[in-house]
Write a structure and sequence with these properties.
Layout: H1 10-17, E1 29-30, E2 37-38, E3 49-50, E4 53-54
Antiparallel strand pairs: 1-2, 3-4
């Protein structure tokens, strides 16, 4: 592996790390079918639709009956 020729100064390394916090939040768009927020060009996690077609069939959890 190559070795560095000169030592990096504190200012250079700190200015490089200054951009770590400038990450933009994800671009969320509403689903045209159910209105839930989702990432663009991905299947909706709520309804399972993509480009007007049902892609994923979600399982519905059955509620447990309370014992009396």
């Amino acid at each position: 592996m190559a070795q560095q020729k000169y030592r990096s100064s504190k200012a250079r390394s700190r200015s490089r790390r200054a951009n770590y916090l400038r990450i933009t939040p994800p671009n969320l768009t509403p689903c045209p079918n159910c209105g839930a927020l989702k990432m663009p060009h991905r299947v909706c996690p709520e309804c399972g639709m993509y480009k007007g077609k049902k892609v994923i069939i979600k399982k519905v959890k059955a509620k447990k009956e309370e014992k009396k």
